[in-house]
Structure formats: structure tokens, C-alpha cells
Amino acid sequence: TLFPYTTLFRSPFVEYKDILNKSYSSSAFWVRIKLDAAHLHDGEKIAIKIMPTYLDEITLYVEDGADKPQTIGDRYPTKNNGVTALSFNFVTTVTADKPYLWLRLKTTSTNMMSVEAMTLDELNESNVTEYLLSGLLFGVLCAFAVLGASYFLTEKEVVNGTFFLKQLFAAMLAFVYLGYQRVLLSNVLSPETMDNLTSVCIDRKSVV
After folding, report:
1. Residue 157 class from Cβ within 10 Å (0-12 exposed, 13-18 middle, 19+ buried)?
2. Which of 7, 31, 34, 9 is nearest to 100 (CA)?
3. Which helix (H) or strand (E) covers residue 193, if one does?
4. What does pTM read for this prediction?
5. Which residues contact 191 (CB under 8 A, 6 or more apart)?
6. Max intra-chain CA distance, the chain
7. Cα 35 to Cα 40: distance, rounded to the nearest angstrom
């Protein structure tokens, strides 16, 4: 519940802008979000969009425990997301007199996190744009991988084989980083398996 953290939530927070970046750490990081009360309507549902898609665990707490804590991350089922999307997101109800939300980030990857608060309509529009741009990027990388494969099949030289493998790994890396494995493979692979797949890609990315 929220109540054991009452003292923490009343403590002063250090302001940051744009993206939280705390590098690698075994610590958990708390982020306080203050919504603009002038634009809030009691009972309105809002979305909190979080990037990147390889963070292990993010938990949302609502002021005074109005809602139960929600947890998302690549170690949790995709259905925990408020809306199915490539990015992580929460959907919660807010009131003008309680404009604060808290996030707890705990991850073995780099503690870099982008947070945006928006309406559900804005989230849906953002998701459409994200699908289009991510799909375009992934498509281009797949096209290069196919091109590399055709070169290698035509002339079986080391340079062609190396080019193909690098392009194939780049496409796999994009597939994981962009969040497609969570959306497309959640009914096939467990969250633990997908988390391990992400870790392998991160550990091997310097090869590409």
C-alpha cells in the first residue's frame, strides 16, 4: 500500500528536466510527477507513457492510495500496461485536488527513463505515430538483412556473410528495443524469457 511510504512522499525531490539519467545502479529511484491542476477534471483518466522498453520494473503510486499500485516493466506481463502499445504506460484516474503521482524505478539496465503524462486520446495518437515510425525503421533494417542474405547466397564470401549477420542482428536488436517482442510474442514467451532476450541483445550490441 501507499501508507508505508508517506514519509518518503513528503520528502523534498530534486528537480530534473527531460530524461532521468542515473546510469547503472542497484538503487531504486523515485520520481514525483506533478500534473497541471488547471487542466485536470475530476475522475478523468490520464495515461503515463514511459520509455525505453527495456526497464525491468516501474511502479505507479497514486496520492493517498486512491488506486492500488500498478507495476509494469519487461519482467511483467504485457497485459499490465494500461493500453497495449510498444511503450510502457499506466492509465489512472486523477482529481484536481490530488495532482501528484509517484513512480518507483528499479532496473538492472541503465536508469534512463522518459516520462510523459497525457490524455488517452493523446496516447492513442502517439501510439499510431510510434507504430508507423518504428515499423518504417524495422522494415528498412529487415530490407538490408535480406539484401545481405542475397549477396551471400550469390557470392559466398566472408565480407558478405559478415554484412548479413550484422544487419540481421541490427534488425533483431531493433525488434527488442522498439518493444515489438512484448506486443507480438507475449502469448508465446514468458516475461522472464523476453527479459533474458533483451539482456542478451544489450550485452551483444557492441558487436554490431
Report:
1. exposed
2. 34
3. helix 191-204
4. 0.82
5. 74, 75, 76, 77
6. 69
7. 8
Distance CA 145, CA 132 (A): 20
Number of residues in the chain: 208
Give the model confidence (pLDDT) of 15-70 as tens digits.
777 788 888 888 899 988 888 777 777 777 889 999 998 899 999 988 765 568 89
What's the grid cell of residue 199? 539482456
How far is Cα 82 from Cα 126, in angstroms, rounded to an integer? 14
Q: What is the pLDDT of residue 104?
A: 92
Q: Which three cell numbers stand for residue 86?
A: 510498444
Cβ-count burial 50-87 (b if 16+ within 10 Å, e if not):
bbbbbbbbbbbbbbeeebeebebbbbbebeebbeebbb
Rounded to whole angstroms, the Cα distance separating 191 from 197 reads 10
Report how far residue 34's alpha carbon sits from residue 101's, in angstroms, rounded to the nearest whole number. Answer: 7
Cell numbers that stand for 20 in this block: 532521468
Residues 113 and 104: beta-carbon distance below 8 Å: no
Residues (pLDDT < 70) of the chain are 1-11, 64-67, 202-208
Cell of 91: 492509465
Strand residues in 52-185 grouped as ranges (E): 57-62, 70-72, 88-94, 100-106, 112-119
Cell numbers given for 22: 542515473
CA 82 to chain CA centroid, Å, is 13
